[in-house]
């Protein structure tokens, strides 16, 4: 008989073991080896059977075993020690504590969170990054409150048909069996968040709380009886469904999410966030709800509320791929926002915030940028690409001036580093091994890499066998799976989602050449490949099928495998065990990429196109850069060129280095690269570095700006709104009337002083309302300026439509120069004079 529904019941632990409950439900165990060891020692077999899930383990271990452990003084002692350690971790001061000027709380909103495979609430890189952000914030003591949705079926599980076609299943999760507890009021009643839907309906959601070390992760769940059936399904799946399904999810996470944060702070006394971080556009409606709060309770008008909200908002954009940007038909947004959803916020104002060049579409990234005073991309190159991509929001400025910065992503070291490596580097550091781990011998490094490679080989065999059983093969046919892969062969990994730009099948461009590499009698390579295609992406599924067909060939199947169901539980084996991590996206479409960072933490060498993070951190000694044919427009030709470059690198550099062994069997030149990677790249790719960057350069200034606009009854917000209104009225009349220069014309020598003068009609604005700048640079044949130097000009007199400004500066270049003058808004409450996208140049 099949059960209609499943539910979990937690075991009653003997009093002596009670702390195990906290150790199991706080997700700190996911990056804390001693806690994992403790759970494994409860019952090795049950631990393995649970897939390393303490909540499941405690539900399944027998009462006899529990009483046995409760009577074991040694075990009880260890439980006590580790529980004390957790308590100390949760309450003691950390990096953040005692620093000045930082926000008392930060809200971090994301559509997905990949904290652990026991809480499968993510699809790929964006979610894992969010999970790593929380863990690093916890380690550093950043008072973050994270907000997302709890999906009944998470993302799909992937398997393969006999013919290599992706199959999707959606196993339902039971929240009772997950490391979560319900947010409840002081009387113990679950708190429900309410959000108005069109036609007078109400959507209700309960709030589950996951404890990620010190950081609470609030997950909203609409699947409750109080909701109409169609509303219950809002939180059924991640990235499934149509635009309507999606906008409902985004309304819930953004607007319901802020309400959940308020409830959480009220119940727990957690400091209210002073800064809200919107991780990608999906959760951007959070800014509208915060505006509503201010309109309803602080008596601000919409413009004042916007000024107040923007000051304390940070927006991070994560993709330059147009298909990755969230957009809705305008009518759909209108439908949802014209009812009771946000009283006091006029629908037209909402629509204007998401306006884009296509008048029928609402763009969540554009709204994110307009609702945040500070925004960033996720690598230096992605910052640059984003400044170009979104430059239409700052018309009149050259792309380099667009106010979108960058914070390069990082990965959580304690989560992704193999224990052997972490132990070795910590030991070496303690022994004063120096910057390049000089105290660690090549032989030890090589042995360590071999251990990790062997572990991966076992995992590959296990998974290939399981996959074939699912594809319909029978046990007796699968003897060969025990002999695939070889712990001594150069192992290359390629695992990531399968959107077209990541080019899963680039390596198949010349199948014979790939085959020759795999089967080389002296210097073979083996390739492990994994990745899910979005269920609606047929072309992605075709790429997977192509890959699977190639790997199914008995001639090569011992050297190349496609492992279905890429997730965190598989990923760690790949990052630990692969010698080389391959990445060949279509440059510059990879915003950052983080899998290569995780490989590097374990001494894997990256072999990658110089895109995302690799563009800034490749140094010639930590791996290889695959040359790209940037600018070649014919995609086939570009793929040919880049695939050839990849084969050439593998044949002429990667494989020879790996197989060039000394008398002791150690490849010294290879281990030198591994050593250099561990010593110099690991520190730079840490999520702790990323979170410190956010705290210092984004959260702290945002908190300061938010305090300034909020103080004195929101006087700053009112002033800023007033300033913007005056600007809007006056701007069309602002005019640069006259410009001339002296000094330089008579003595055109590099470095000579040049004085620029301008007469400006300020259209009724005060001289202090504007920043007038002289801009000097090289002038090309079309008078376009490059290599510009900008000098603020001083107000030297005049009034009534003829204000005079002047600046003196040294000539910055030899050759043909040009200059101009421009007028920008100036107000100390702006993060930069470019922020409002307003500029006047001479006619
Ligand atoms: C790190 C990771 C990703 C993201 O990898 P990219 O290189 O950014 O594509 C996706 N899925 C899993 C399971 C990961 O661990």
From TrEMBL:
User: Would you identify the family this protein belongs to, as annotated?
Assistant: Belongs to the glycogen phosphorylase family.
Q: What are the record keywords, sorted?
A: Allosteric enzyme, Carbohydrate metabolism, Glycosyltransferase, Pyridoxal phosphate, Transferase
Quote the EC number: 2.4.1.1
Q: Superkingdom of this entry's organism?
A: Bacteria
Keyword Glycosyltransferase set for record: yes
Its name, as the record gives it, is: glycogen phosphorylase
Q: Which cofactor does it need?
A: pyridoxal 5'-phosphate
PROSITE patterns documented for this protein: PHOSPHORYLASE
The record places domain DUF3417 at: 13-119
- Purpose of the protein: Phosphorylase is an important allosteric enzyme in carbohydrate metabolism. Enzymes from different sources differ in their regulatory mechanisms and in their natural substrates. However, all known phosphorylases share catalytic and structural properties.
Pfam families named in the record: DUF3417, Phosphorylase
Show the catalytic activity.
[(1->4)-alpha-D-glucosyl](n) + phosphate = [(1->4)-alpha-D-glucosyl](n-1) + alpha-D-glucose 1-phosphate
Could you tell me which species this protein originates from? Actinomycetospora endophytica
